[in-house]
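Purpose: get a first structural picture of the assembly so the mutagenesis plan has something to point at.
Setup: two entries, given in the order below. No constraints added.
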Amino acid sequence: MIEAPDLSLSALSPFLFVFGAALVGVLVESFAPRHVRQPTQVALALVGTVGGFACTLLLAGRGEVTAAGALAVDGAGLFLQATIAGLGALSVLLFAERALDPARSAFVASAAVPAGSPRDRELLTDERVQTEVYPLATFAVGGMMLFVAANDLLVMFIALEVLSLPLYLICGLSRRRRLLSQEAAVKYFLLGAFASAFFLYGLALVYGATGTVQLAGIRQSVTDDGTGTLLVLGLGLLVVGLMFKASVAPFHTWTPDVYQGAPTPVTAFMAACTKVAAFGAILRLLYVAFGTADWTWRPLVYGIAIVSMVVGAVLGLTQTDVKRMLAYSSIAHAGFLLTGVIGLDAGTGSGLAATLFYLLAYGLTTVGAFAVVTLVRDGDGEATALAQWAGLARRSPLTAAIMTFLLLALAGIPLTSGFTGKFAVFRAAIEVGAWPLAVVALVTSAVAGFFYLRLVVLMYFSEPAEDGPSVGVPGLPTTIVLAVTVAATLVLGVVPGSVLDLADGAARLVG
Amino acid sequence: MSEFPWLLTMIVVPAVGGAAVAALPKGRDALAKQAALAVSLLVLVLAVLATVAFDTGGERFQLTTSVSWIPSFGVDFALGVDGIALVMLLLIGVLVPVVVVASWRDTGPGGRSMKAYFAWLLVLEAMMVGVFAATDVFLFYVFFEAMLVPMYFIIGSFGGPRRQYAAVKFFLYSLLGGLVMLASVIGLYVVSTSQIGEGTFAFDALRSLDIDPGVQKLLFLGFFVAFAIKAPLVPFHTWLPDSGAEAPVGGAVLLVGVLDKVGTFGFIRYCLPLFPDASRTFAPWILGLAVAGILYGALLAMGQSDMKRLVTYTSIAHFGFIALGIFAFTAEGGSGAVLYMVNHGISTGILFLVVGMVITRGGSRSIADYGGIGKKAPVLAGVFLVAGLSSLALPGTNSFVSEFLVLLGSFPTRPVFTIVATVGIVLAALYVLLLIQRAVHGPARGLVTEQPFPDLRRRELVVVAPLLALVIGLGVYPQPLLDLINPAVAATMGDIGSDPAGTQPATAEQGAN
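Result (structure tokens, whole complex):
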């Protein structure tokens, strides 16, 4: 007879909340009449994400492994889960915005209708709203939360799929520029499938080398038997799979296209939450499973960090589209985050806490920046070409000021959260002696500063174009998102003390 | 009296004032100006009162305020001034109201509202006070970088035709320098963690560290690059002529008069005491750059056809003198350099303002478009002449005292560099007098005849009068400032282990030069 594994239901409560909300969402989608779906789904998704957020807060301080060693409940995991759930809730608010698009939603009315067909043109102005996006996004949030808590490579793989599949779908749901959106979805799916395959292959090799898929077991095996070629190869493939999700160069090629093509609220969701989840998994894998043999991954991560920072900063300079620019910014930031990962030093370094803080700060700022992008529109939807932003400060000083502040945060100017985060990760890297990496990071920060600045120059110092875009008046949801992200970016820059302490206290991985 | 947080008030008042001016409804430009003037005068009063509260014979850092800011980084919001910082605060206090009045009638390009300009000026003032008053290296860095934002908008929104280019160049150069410095700031923190047991950014604690010479060199270079870009020393200077020429006149006065002094202030406050060995190692190279700057700046100033660019190149030459005084490691040289920082703010300030008044009347920045200003506007011409003479350091004007002190202080330890630097004095006379000859003397021609070219108005007299008084006053009686500066400079030179009297070579190695 098979013993049921020991399950701590309280430790699983965040997942129960989020996945529960997603499942109820599917039922609502099937059985509720159309006119009540939108408010119900928004409410459900918010209950799920905010509930998940609250549960992680209640669990704070726990440190245990549950579900037969498949899940770890620890400070770092809970911090990341709370970050994902919170950013997920903000993204759901962006999805729910109805005041900006004349058709009252950023999502296509019927995704199955071929783009450009007569029926599609009819539906373009139809106020019918697609609501599948809410349960899908909730599933993705659940997958991400599972991803950062997975203490077992198989669970990690399942979580990877649970978070990825809904994302592939919702990338293709843009109401406007549907072909671009569908292309993004297909591209993301194909490359994502490759990445999953890499991860799975790596998993198989690691299993072959160590005979276990549990992170703690792998650590034990690494400590006892040392590392062989098979194990190092497996680790390399696992890292490639995870780096893909984290959009780290040279595994970034999907990022600009997908960020550009996806509906902007979805881009915000991906840029913030996927990044947090992927880095959570990277931290757990490298620290828990391979922390005692850090020579196996340190040179690899070191090199990838430099490539990512340079690629993100340099290619960002050449972009002419705001969303693509933010995509390259996200690649550069992935590199900065990896400097924090390098600062993971066998439990003594401040790298883990620094990376946790950076993820939180970056996620909030990015959601805010994409929220601003949804506001700037012309007759054809969002105006994302850089040239269209010229003179925006004359038309809407407040929008331009908010965007400028968020861009300064992304550039890492003091008194914004971006600076605090950068300071924390660079300090962690220098503490373990990786100062050449920190110098590269600082120089690329200056290069990246140029493209953030270029947008500021356009908004403030250029004359507005004759037929330039207008700035939509956001409804309540987007207003909340902007207020929260701007306030958080400011607070985390000016008085970051308590949140840094929180990250310090949470910087613990069990396994 | 000493309990009152003077420095904090001097940061909070303009910051709040700036926010209030920015929040005024559209079209209230007149009120914005009045508010900006009132706030900046209040800061001047505070600066004077702080000086009164400062005891020249007392501890090095006074008027201190310190509260814990980011405990997990070991950062304190710590303010305090020594004599060097205090005179810079006085300079800020004087220049900002002057700039506000000087910009009273300015109009923004393309009919922009000037309200934002005055708001940014006040925010800039708060940042400038902060950068000089910080005694925590992290806090200093925060102000150092945050200071860029208001200046960026002042240049970019209200400057000349190539303002976008100039603003971006200014920002990126400074940002790059700042980020390199950040690496050193973190490095210092790591060193302090290993030596003291807990990381700190407090200046006094960092000063007592004993840093390995190799590490010291790297950390020194990080700070040095940032300050050399800011000051600017010669190979790092190319942003200044663009920014100085394109910035609105008021912005240019503060940019060259105060902002760039953060660089030389950084040399004397941070580079010398924190990294004494590295400072000594690199001193000959830096002196080489300083002297090259003196000659190069002067030669380029002579070749300029644009008046504002000319003034910025003269500043590059002057910054060479300041760096010479600092890196000669003598008390006289150091005091001269600090006094030079103040005097340069005054004399370049007035020169920029006068040039600005000429440009407002003529509408062109080109020297060749003017001639015989003296015939139509004798008072303006007279002020122009005094400003020019102050810039070339004629005895009797303020700059003479400081330039003489720098040369006197540098000669005992660095005779060769000093002798070469004196050539710069001759060149200074050339570039100033050539400018005045071409624009002021001779028959009225060009724009001077084509445009109505009125003499100074009452408001403009109010602008130049206090600066003229300081030019003459400090030229005749600089002692009060020197009393403030000397103890702080002596302490700094003590940190680096040189002979405070400055009559003997500090080390055998230096004596060999």
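Residues 227 and 263 of chain B are 4 Å apart (CA to CA).
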